[in-house]
Amino acid sequence: MEDLQRKARLLENEIDMRLISLNKFHISNAGQTDIQSKSHSRRSFDSLTSEIESKLSKLSEINFQMQECFDKDKSVFNKTPQQHILRRHQDILRDYSAEFRRTHENIKNQLQRDELMEMTSTVNNRCRTTDYLTRENESISDCDRLLNDQISIAMSVREGLYSQSSGLGAINKRVHQLTKKYPALNNLMNKIRMKKRKDTLILAAVISSCLIFIFIYLMH
């Protein structure tokens, strides 16, 4: 009986320390947002609860063995103190079990809420990423359409310039053929060009003279 009592007290002390750690875990784990910290907390919680459950089971077995020893003891003198000791150990086991269930349930609910919030946040982030990619895809499509329109305009302009160049080339060729065919026309064209040059030179000389006279007038 005494050996069982010693084992019971040892287990009770160990369970008490584990329950204190479990309550501290409940406080320190509140409000965590880091994913790695949450994962580590979950593993620590599972390990700690398994250890407490194992020790509570052993303590329950020892209490059962003490109850058997108490029932087999025929000494009336030892009945009352042993009964008090046995009842105290049973009360301690009941209190520890109730505290463990309460704390375990609170932490479990907290971890489940955190996991649910994390899942919701992940889904929202994926939705935002999808929306962003959709907008980027639409923007790229708009740029492609605008680029295609600009290329089409450039092709049209190039075709127009090519047509104009071809037309001017044909006109120059036609004029060149006419000047060869009709020398008088060629002479007339040369005279026109010479007269235009002469008129240009005369006009330039008149303008220069006027500017010189104005400059001299202003200087005096």
TrEMBL record:
Its main location: Golgi. The keyword NADP does not apply. It is a single-pass type IV membrane protein. One of its GO terms (cellular component) is Golgi membrane. Coiled coil: none annotated. It is found in: Golgi apparatus membrane. It comes from the Eukaryota. One of its GO terms (biological process) is vesicle fusion. The chain crosses the membrane at residues 201-219. The keyword Protein transport applies. Belongs to the GOSR1 family. This is Golgi SNAP receptor complex member 1. It comes from Meloidogyne enterolobii (Root-knot nematode worm).
